[in-house]
Write a structure and sequence with these properties.
The structure is a single chain. The chain is α+β, with helices and mostly antiparallel strands. The chain has six helices and 14 strands. The strands form four sheets. Strands 6-13-12-11-14-8-9-10 form an eight-stranded mixed sheet. A hairpin with a 4-residue loop joins strand 3 and strand 4. The longest helix is centred in the last third of the chain and has 12 residues.
Length: about 200
Amino acid sequence: HVPLTSRRGTMSIALDHHRKEATEIPRTHTAGRLLCTLNASLPVEYSASLPIVRDMSTDVVEVSLKIPVPHTNGYALFLGNEEKTIVIYVDAFTGEAIRMASEGIRKERPLTHDLIGFILQGFDITLKRVLINDVVDSTFFARLQFQMDNEIGRKFVEIDARPSDSIALAMQTKAPIYIARHVFDTAEDMTEIMDRILGQKED
């Protein structure tokens, strides 16, 4: 286990050495904080006193964007699976970008999230997953988990981001979206409301 020292303290991350994927994910929400960049050949684990997701199969839930709904202040994004649907509210600009991406609408010129996706592609960086990892006073927090392969090795980078930007990038790059189980379980189930909206559209 090899600790990583940064200006913000000592921490390290555990990797599944065979799959070379991060299997432990920190649950923090400091905006814009770069947590780690490391070579996958180093088997290390988080040593910081942070709550972590130890098992991606039980501590997180994979969801998809079911429908983006415009409203007076932006968009309501209905995210969920067969078990449940939750809503995250986003600004109008990002919500429109997400709607266009979800409907496969081509733009004449790249929007901001398209540009970021092209930059990632140009540097062989893959957005492996989006994790909506926390909610505080109805405000959701998310993390972007990137993988980069080059001649030196495989690196993973994880950063904090707004859920709106994270979902927009996930739609742009076709990356999976996960929600931490504790967030998913405590959020209100909006499946019935979503079904009403879909029913109105069909009428």
